[in-house]
Amino acid sequence: MRKQYLLCALLGSIGLAGAGFAWRSDRSPVEPVALRIRMVLAVPWGDQAGQVGRQNFPEAAYDLFPTDFCRAPDGTLWVCDGINNRLVGFRPDPNGEKPAELVAQVPLEHPTHVAASKEGLFIVDWPREAQPEGPLQCSLWHYADGQLQQKATFQDPLVGYLAGQLVALPGGEVLALGDLLHRVKPAGEVQEIPLETAAMATAVGPSGLVYQIEKWEREEEILTGRVKRWTLDSEEQEPTRFEVVWPYDTGPEMDPEWLQDHPSGARLIGADSAGRLYCALYERLQGGSPRLTLARFSPEGELLDRGYFQPPGMDLRDVWKRCPEEVWRVTAEGQLLVALPTDQEYLLLEVTM
Fold first, then answer.
1. Which partner for 331 in 116, 191, 256, 335 could form a disulfide, CB atoms 3.0-4.6 Å apart?
2. Phi-psi region of 208 (alpha: psi -120 to 50; beta: other; left: phi over 0)
3. How many domains does the structure of the chain reveal?
4. Which domain does 212 fall in, by range?
5. How far apart are alpha carbons 173 and 193 in whole angstroms?
6. What's the pLDDT tens digit per position in 222-241?
């Protein structure tokens, strides 16, 4: 265990408004930046204290493992350990020299999503056993000062998958993103808001702004996303629409067949409190090896930064064999957190652009 942690510590020290959609030629290309990657959590697989669960089904396409995590205001990292029917809290060593300290294990049925605010933790929990009648319902729990209290119930299968997202807003309001956007008021009332885009193309920022990529278009070396931004309390106002423009990398290291056949589109992974958007684009290089490029856009859609995400000593193909999508979360300050399951352990990495 100590040997594994030292390897991870070494990994952590390596740096790596308009309404139209016309291409604006005054935008200059943005060269890739070095992403700073730091390991913040390494937890072995298992069902004991200080471990998280993973279950392999040979006949299934992917393993089962923690589906979500969050960082609380006090720095504690909370992981949905659904296999072991619990939420687990870890306090990382600020110097990155020691393993994280186990601070709490909260018994639940099958937690899938968690979010934190100053009011505490909010957890989506699914029943362990099939319900005898009617549609399956999940619970939203509030956890603070060591006490669990049920806040609301709703039904939406996507809330329980990687595509879902849970956001805790100031004042105790919670947004659960799935097939619908569930707005849970502080007193527990649930408002269901229809979405015109899939969950993977929708993100909710920490201020409650909702972002939806309505369409990606590719023309030669330019990838353009049409974005709609709206607020929860603006039913009488028109949403703001703008474009994000991403120059495609067509250099000699790219696989020409992939460039020709790959459908245009990038994944929206989140937004920060300043309204900046973060996207991920999967690319294939010569020889078949993958590359993941991250991009950050201004609230008006200008490309601010982009960089290649490749943790030293790791092959992302090994990760994608276990999970369909790595789980990304964007902090209010604009740091990225990503969960990567490996053979030995569950890793959380912090990525700074």
1. 335
2. left
3. 2
4. 1-40+206-353
5. 15
6. 889 999 998 887 665 678 99
